[in-house]
Amino acid sequence: MSRNMASLPGHAAALFTTVVWGITYVSTKYLTDSFDPVEILLFRLTLANILLHLAAPGISPRPGEEKYFALAGLTGICLYFMLENTALTITTASNVGIIVSSAPLFTALLALPAYRDRRVLSPGFITGFILAMSGIVMLSTGGSDMEIHPAGDLMVVAACLAWAVYSLTVKKIAAFGYGNLAATRRIFLWGLLFVAPWAFPADIRMDDFSRYASPQALGNLVFLGAVASALCFATWNYAVRTLGPVKTCVYIYGGPAITVIFAWIFLSEQLNAVGITGCLMAIAGLLLSSLPESHSDLKGVIRKKMPKIRRDRKTIPRDSEGAFPEQKK
């Protein structure tokens, strides 16, 4: 099986995850009218932990490994969601959407010292980043000027860094040899432990459980916990194991386009020419950044072929003067 064919399941997993996570913004927006953001997150993580415990066996990490599971739970589950949710109360949703979409660049920058491979910042990756971010800015601002909110915007930058650390840590955990679901279960357990203390200062209405009786509310909560959390973190982690953190993270570019499309369908939000152009640019940037480093691959092919050519020439008999027969013609 060729390398490109072997990576197809990883690309499919990353694409599926991005589509579902793009829908979560629409689902969460519906729930915030009745639920505190921390309450939504706690429900998501609790349900996800229950489902992952039912679906996967427990593991006992070897000495020195537990810290990586804890780091993944802290960065990808706790810090990322808490920083993003808090930033939404300080800066605009447009700013959050734009800055979060720059996570692939932060992942690539952190991957440079981790992998010592400059190809993670190939010309195709940089060009795709610029194209995708331009489209995302158009999507998020609708052509109007972007407002700067330093405190909130810096929180979103911190969330991007947290996600980059999470993605690189998941790649490290994959080398331990545990199953993907079992490793995800361990990460989520740590994530819930880190998020739980945030429930105390949050405005959670423990006396009004009638909110859960609504089919729409319960359906959205189950979707966020079962599909967007338990299933999608497993598929994302699988994609990171298969493609690597940098190639997987470029799928984040497609998130805003998916959110806009589903908000147009289900929330009746307007989608104008600027938004359509932004969607196309974001998707084009995703595809460009996902392409293999063709220049590096071409050089590799040439290097592999050249020694073979030299070996073939060595097998051709030479005359007493050491010349090849064709050189005397």
What labels would you give this structure?
mainly alpha, 2 domains, 0% strand, globular
Overall tally of domains: 2
Distance separating the two termini? 44 Å
Q: What composes the largest sheet?
A: none
- Runs with pLDDT <50, length 5+? 294-306
**Cα gyration radius (Å):** 24 Å
Helix content: over 70%
Q: Quote the average pLDDT.
A: 77
**Count of helical stretches:** 14
Number of strands: 0
> Hey, roughly how much beta strand do the residues contain?
under 5%
Secondary-structure-derived class: mainly alpha
The SSE order reads: HHHHHHHHHHHHHH
Shape: globular
Give the SSE layout.
Blueprint: H1 3-6, H2 8-31, H3 37-55, H4 66-87, H5 93-100, H6 103-115, H7 123-141, H8 150-174, H9 180-195, H10 215-243, H11 245-249, H12 254-266, H13 273-290, H14 294-314
Helix pairs in contact: 2-10, 2-12, 3-9, 3-10, 4-8, 4-9, 5-7, 5-8, 6-8, 7-12, 7-13, 9-10, 12-13
